[in-house]
Amino acid sequence: MKTDAIQKNFTDVYDGVIPKRVPIGAVLPLEFCIQYGGLDLGKTQWTLDGVYEATDRLCGELPLESAPLGTPRYPAYLTLLGAKTYVMGDSGFMQHPEVMGMEPEDYDDFIKSPRDFIIETIFPKLFTNWEKDSVSRALSFAGALLAHNDYQNKHAAIVKKLREKYTFYTPPIGSLGGVTAPFDYLADFLRGFTGITKDIKRCPEKIAEACDAVLPFLFEKGLPANPHKYGQTFMPLHMATYLRNKEFDKFYWPSFHRLVEALHDAGQPCYIFCEADWTRYLDYLWELPEGTRFCFEYGDPHTIKDKLGKKHILSGLYPVTYLKTATKQECVDKAKELIDIMAPGGNYIFNFDKNPFVMSDVNLDNYKAVLEYVAQNSNYANAGERSRPAETHSETRRVLALAETKYRNIGCSVPEGLENVIAPILTKYQDNIWAFMTKLL
């Protein structure tokens, strides 16, 4: 684990300690870095050629404290599977069209066994090469798995090289994950925005049952190989702000709450991106495990700090559009205004309301000026004091107390007496395959 000042600023915040200064959590995505390097967006996402050189120049220009490049969508494995979930448009951007992998009459089958239903029914609908004969399906899946691993390794090597050169915050290996809330999972790929909206009126009880049923699957999906208090599982919240309060209370909150608690109990904090304005749900968010991390898109900073700042870690709220429309001084003044509200008492990481997706989203000089201001003008006079009470739960990993969904029947004959040696080896490979499958949806 790195011991430089930037590293410690982040870990102090995560530990409930006021750091020497406010850490900077801003991250630039792959597409932004490709455009900065003047590279062809579509071609470069396939090869990653030139990405390190372009990002290296960008990192030399900006005082970033978190490694760029994010978590891209890999076009090779999606193409090999014939994915309808993400497609590359003519502009070179990976786009998520509205898709529907499940019909309303399928709820009962899904609730009975979400994992089996996803593999047997939803995959064939959303991945066209899954619909083919068994040999073609096996070959396309094997090719997709290899393509995913190759791309992931190449991407990880670039990020590792950047982290070694620059003083980025570096979480423990294997401690980053990603997942969606159960209701969002239904809306994203299974029923689509239109379908889930109709289902709220047509079959509301089935939605609640489906959210509960898919919890163990999403827990496995969101729990990384090495759960750690300095890692995090990213969870973007999509649909909540489209719901009425009573719908949120019935359909969204219960399973979402349980998922965040389950990951926390397993030693894995959640980093939750609250899309749109979550003001009416702030009292709910207070109930989540202490030290949960939030990035807010919209809302009043005073209200958010007042309601959540003593228990949870806050970020976001700086409008990234301001970096394009305002003068440099106005951008710096906005950062000062936000820090004056959010930084006192700690539990704060500076970030924008969203990452700039393309170069045209921001004036890069303004972006740099804001980051420089935060790095030079957000020191704490009371560094080292506690920002929230020390957690009292055991550091020992606890397992989610939900229905078991593991698939441990290896299905292979092994020599008598060697089961204890062979089974873990075979299970490891099966786990790797399942981990890839969970990333598909």
From TrEMBL:
Any one of the GO BP annotations: porphyrin-containing compound biosynthetic process
UniProt-recorded Gene Ontology molecular function terms: uroporphyrinogen decarboxylase activity
Protein name: Uroporphyrinogen decarboxylase (URO-D) domain-containing protein
Pfam families referenced in this protein's UniProt entry, alphabetically: URO-D
SUPFAM superfamilies for the chain: UROD/MetE-like
Domain Uroporphyrinogen decarboxylase (URO-D): 158-375
InterPro entries assigned to the protein according to its UniProt record, in alphabetical order: UROD/MetE-like_sf, Uroporphyrinogen_deCOase
Gene3D superfamilies, per the entry: 3.20.20.210
